[in-house]
Amino acid sequence: MNLLFKIAGTHVRNRLRQTIVSTLGVALGVGFSIAMAALMQGSQRDFVESLINAIPHVEIRDEKRDPTLQPASRFYQAVAFHGLRPLDDIGGIRNPTEAMASLRDWVDGNLAQQLSGQAVLRYSGQDLGMTLVGVVPTDELSVSTIKDDMRRGRFEDLATTPDSLVIGDSAAGRLGADLGDTVTVTSASGLSKRFKIVGIFHKGVSASDEALAYAPLKAVQILLEKPNVINRITLRLDTIAEAPAVAERAERQLGYKAVSWEEANEGLMEAFAVRNVIMYTVVGAILVVAGFGIFNIISTIVHEKARDIAILKSLGFPEHDIQLIFVLEGLVIGILGALAGCLLGYGLSSYLSTIRFEFSVGREMTHLPIYMSVWHYAIASGIALISAGVAGFFPARRAARLNPVDIIRGAT
Known about the structure:
Blueprint: H1 2-14, H2 16-54, E1 58-61, H3 71-75, E2 93-94, H4 96-104, E3 109-123, E4 126-135, H5 137-143, H6 146-149, E5 150-153, H7 157-160, E6 164-168, H8 169-175, E7 182-187, E8 192-201, H9 206-211, E9 212-216, H10 217-223, E10 229-230, E11 232-237, H11 243-254, E12 258-260, H12 261-264, H13 266-304, H14 306-314, H15 319-352, E13 357-358, E14 364-365, H16 374-400, H17 404-409
Parallel strand pairs: 4-9, 6-8
Antiparallel strand pairs: 1-11, 1-12, 2-10, 3-4, 3-7, 3-11, 5-8, 6-9, 7-8, 13-14
Helix pairs in contact: 1-15, 2-13, 2-15, 2-16, 13-15, 13-16, 15-16
Pfam family, one: FtsX
InterPro entries: ABC3_permease_C, Lipoprotein-release_system, MacB_PCD
Domain ABC3 transporter permease C-terminal: 282-404
């Protein structure tokens, strides 16, 4: 085996310029593949982390996963009903205190209760439709990032100021209202109540900044005429991986639909999975292209060393050893290229992580989101070695099949 390595090394050294070019081709393929994988996975992880911080890990809603069965369907075996009047249901999760207590017994994390409904805000002759959310401020701060989104005022003031309101900056601008102003809030049933603005937030999402407002839970229950009723329970877990299991158990326990953040963003997660497939396909294609350079140099060596091959076979070297010599030459180039590519990939990833962006709105993304993983290096190097091995195999097989007599006689 040592002799085979020496012969392979001699062949590679004799064509040093071509070897360096092929090695650089593999190195560039591996390096850029690692950097691209680090950037794409880093952006994905950064986006998912931002998404997780912005939404509840588990959300329990006042609805059933399956439609409520009407009494007529239970008593009569009919294909269809005409003129059936369904039972009226005001909705909501009843006995919220009991529901919250039953969840706190086993959920590792924070819980918050909400009651939301549609309302109209009126100020200085301007009307604006809003989603009014009643919250317990201390609980809401433990499950959401609303405190970080506050631009003026404090979210905690909802607990100390009666009939207080926190709205988005876009809504405040459209109404012409400011901190400390009093607005009139009218529910869908026509009941009106006056609220004082104690805070203004900015989430960067127009749907929230223009059409979302927070108020104390008790005040919203009175306005919406739903005393002791909530329609949503949000959970922020200590271990996010437990979200699907917690949602399933909570749904069995309470009977209401419980949705984990993964289920709520199922389409987005599928898009990420497709993007990862595309990413690794591109990585593989880059390294396969680099493998053609190895194929070219090994084919050239086989052509130039035809007489050497004939002499080796005449000395008794079996076809397997001849083939192994040229496969080793391809692997040597692949290994050198993979090592250099890993260094290049690390350098590129480190440099990209230092690039800073600053946006005109004043919000800054400190650095490009780079995620370095040993798997990026292992996968890129593995594909490079496979490409090198395959690129060396076909010329090697042709070399092993050469007839030494024909070579020595000068036959083509």
